[in-house]
Amino acid sequence: MTPDRLKELVRTVPDFPARGVQFRDITTLINHGEGFAATVAMLSDTVEGSKAARIVGMEARGFIFGAAVAARLSLPFVPIRKPGKLPIDALGVDYALEYGTDRLELDPGAFEEGERVAIVDDLIATGGTALAAAQLLRQAEVEPVCAAFVIDLPDLGGAARLREADVPVSAIMSFPGD
């Protein structure tokens, strides 16, 4: 399957979650066996090229794609969680949202020092979550060597912000203007 064909499998929901927003719903892509498999294969090619030793994905849709890529490449997967979900003392970072803040947490014992780690997620928009993930990885003394996304919303600038933070970015498809 081509990236253009995969893009056709993404449902656009107008005015969700707010008026004027074109929500890109990946559940229709996940629900298409061949499309999901092709997406995981393309993300896996990017991660494999980075020579990452481990993959992280952010809650929740990053778990879907990150774990699938990790399984395909026989690499360990580490979830980056929402606050209070880990039963241990976790590393955490607060980050800005459009209206407020949020927090991500990570098990600091899940890595070898200096390890190369790939970030995998469904979508990059403003980049807040991905930048927070990269910051957490650096706190854990590992190197974020790539960030692979299914969808990029380039007009929101997240991929550019992540590149400015020295994390290479790739996406299978983009939806300009959103």
TrEMBL record:
<dbReference type="InterPro" id="IPR050054">
    <property type="entry name" value="UPRTase/APRTase"/>
</dbReference>
<dbReference type="Pfam" id="PF00156">
    <property type="entry name" value="Pribosyltran"/>
</dbReference>
<comment type="pathway">
    <text>Purine metabolism; AMP biosynthesis via salvage pathway; AMP from adenine: step 1/1.</text>
</comment>
<dbReference type="InterPro" id="IPR000836">
    <property type="entry name" value="PRTase_dom"/>
</dbReference>
<feature type="domain" description="Phosphoribosyltransferase">
    <location>
        <begin position="50"/>
        <end position="152"/>
    </location>
</feature>
<dbReference type="GO" id="GO:0044209">
    <property type="term" value="P:AMP salvage"/>
</dbReference>
<dbReference type="InterPro" id="IPR005764">
    <property type="entry name" value="Ade_phspho_trans"/>
</dbReference>
<dbReference type="GO" id="GO:0006168">
    <property type="term" value="P:adenine salvage"/>
</dbReference>
<keyword id="KW-0963">Cytoplasm</keyword>
<dbReference type="GO" id="GO:0003999">
    <property type="term" value="F:adenine phosphoribosyltransferase activity"/>
</dbReference>
<comment type="similarity">
    <text>Belongs to the purine/pyrimidine phosphoribosyltransferase family.</text>
</comment>
<comment type="subunit">
    <text>Homodimer.</text>
</comment>
<keyword id="KW-0808">Transferase</keyword>
<comment type="function">
    <text>Catalyzes a salvage reaction resulting in the formation of AMP, that is energically less costly than de novo synthesis.</text>
</comment>
<keyword id="KW-0660">Purine salvage</keyword>
<protein>
    <recommendedName>
        <fullName>Adenine phosphoribosyltransferase</fullName>
        <ecNumber>2.4.2.7</ecNumber>
    </recommendedName>
</protein>
<keyword id="KW-0328">Glycosyltransferase</keyword>
<dbReference type="GO" id="GO:0006166">
    <property type="term" value="P:purine ribonucleoside salvage"/>
</dbReference>
<dbReference type="InterPro" id="IPR029057">
    <property type="entry name" value="PRTase-like"/>
</dbReference>
<dbReference type="GO" id="GO:0016208">
    <property type="term" value="F:AMP binding"/>
</dbReference>
<dbReference type="GO" id="GO:0002055">
    <property type="term" value="F:adenine binding"/>
</dbReference>
<dbReference type="GO" id="GO:0005737">
    <property type="term" value="C:cytoplasm"/>
</dbReference>
